[in-house]
Amino acid sequence: MKNDLKIIKRKYGEKMMHLARKLFPTLLEEEGLLSSIMLKLFEPNRDLYDDIINNNLEVEFKNFIYSQVDVENGKRMITIKTPEELMEEAGYHLYLCKNEEDIQSFRKYYAKGEELCTFMGGRLERCHVFFAVRHDVDSIRREEFKNPKREDLYGTSVISIQFDRDYTHNLSIKNRYNHRVNDPDATFSNNLDNIIEGLTDSFAKYYGLEQKYRHFSFEIPGYVLARDGKYYKYNFELYNTYYCPNNIIIENGEVKKYDKAKYIVFDYFILKLDGEKKIFLADNLINDSFIQSIGDIRDAKIEITNQDNGKKIVIKKCDGREIIMVLDSKNSLISYQNDNVKEIGNKFLCWAYSLKNLSLKRVQIIGDSFLYGNRVLDELDLPSVKRIGNDALYYNENLESIDLPNVQIIGDYMLINNQTLTKFNAPNLKRAGSILLFNRNEIDFNAPKLQFVNRVSKERFQSRLSEIIRENRERGMKL
Which of 47, 115, 365, 438 sits a CA distance of 20 to 30 A from 223? Predict the structure, then answer.
């Protein structure tokens, strides 16, 4: 028992050791049993205890660990119905995709920014792909679900059921919301019987898709089950690739571990520290101009300083220019300063969800989808920018003021989801797309040279802005 508890404390922390003593006294009687089960199932991390307790999974965790002592005793319902027949009973039409055209025919069901990476092509090379569409799908509207939840009616109204083509037939049930909810690739806990009982055996019987690792049915938010049979805590997920602490990346279930002495994995990027230094994308499906903003760093000096709950990285180029990045304890990028670059391409840090501070003092042109998915940015320094493309800061919720003294043109939908903005200063702005009209706060709006807003006259735009302010004042009086 003592050695087991020492191992658990060293790998998972003291709180997990106490929980193990409480939950598994029987298993602890056999030396080495409990620690070996946990190390087989969970990649070591000291957040496991808190993640179990905070998600009220103590009972599920206990049952899961005990189930591993004899995993062969599980029983399943045997069915004679086809998957199509069972899905009809559950309220779905089930479709098998035989070619790329079949897959693309389902794109129409997905909202902008929520499309599956499956639609990028090539998925049939490694997966058997099915789509299931609810009979009443046309009556289920995206706009009626303001606070998406993974298993709500909209999220499960169109699902993609995908089995790996290798011998494991590893299963992923993909949500209609895609990246707008937690674990969208584990809808119904990746358990077909949660849709309708008997569906797992039906797929095995009629399509030969028996899941080798199905008995690993435990689910915990923020963790992914890899093909090695272990659960890994992850910081970030994009296109079915998971970015985990300790320089671990899991791509389509395969675990890749990067030497900490040679690499730093942050967000969806990898910084190579030795030899031919560079920053590169971990997944070739991603298109992000952040790499181009860094430029050539092969001969640069890289200084890394540990800070409270994170680290500071300074890239010093041969010409004396510096680029500064700050990472938090999870290696997520929270601050980026690059006062050298003059032009930013499309999708710059498009999915940098944790970035809070950004300084690009010399940049003059910014492409489309700038910080598109980021919600938490609260400090932005763009004193020289003259042109900003479409969908900039599309999902941002934190910025309270924005100062763009030299901007002349802004595309559509900048800050369209922001509800906190109170000050917008752009004294040289001449043309803009649909901006700010959906904001619900009073705005100190300064753009004296503005002539057109998405082909609407300045007067009409200002009139509409005044209407919004008046409506909110009246609403506040009523409340």
Answer: 115
CB contact at 8 A, 49 and 12:
yes
Determine the Cα–Cα distance for residues 191 and 367; give it in Å rounded to an integer: 41
Q: Quick: pLDDT tens for 339-353.
A: 999 999 999 999 999
Backbone angles phi, psi at 263, to 5 degrees: -140, 155
Helix (H, G, I), strand (E, B) or coil at 337: strand
The closest of 110, 105, 353, 60 to 216, measured between CA atoms, is: 60
Name the DSSP letter for residue 187: G
Per-residue pLDDT tens over the stretch 115-143: 898 999 999 998 999 999 999 999 999 88
Report CA dihedral (249, 252, 253, 254) to the nearest 10 degrees: -60
* C-alpha span between 143 and 243 (Å, rounded): 31
pLDDT surpasses 50 at 39: yes
Tokens of 117: 């990476």
* Distance separating alpha carbons of residues 200 and 210, to the nearest angstrom: 8
Taking residues 258-268, report their average pLDDT. Answer: 94
Rounded Cα distance between 5 and 25, Å, is: 11
Select from 289, 107, 86 the least CA-distant residue to 195: 86
- The amino acid sitting at 380 is L
CA distance 213 to 52: 22
How are strands ordered across the β-sheet holding 401-403?
401-403, 423-425, 444-446
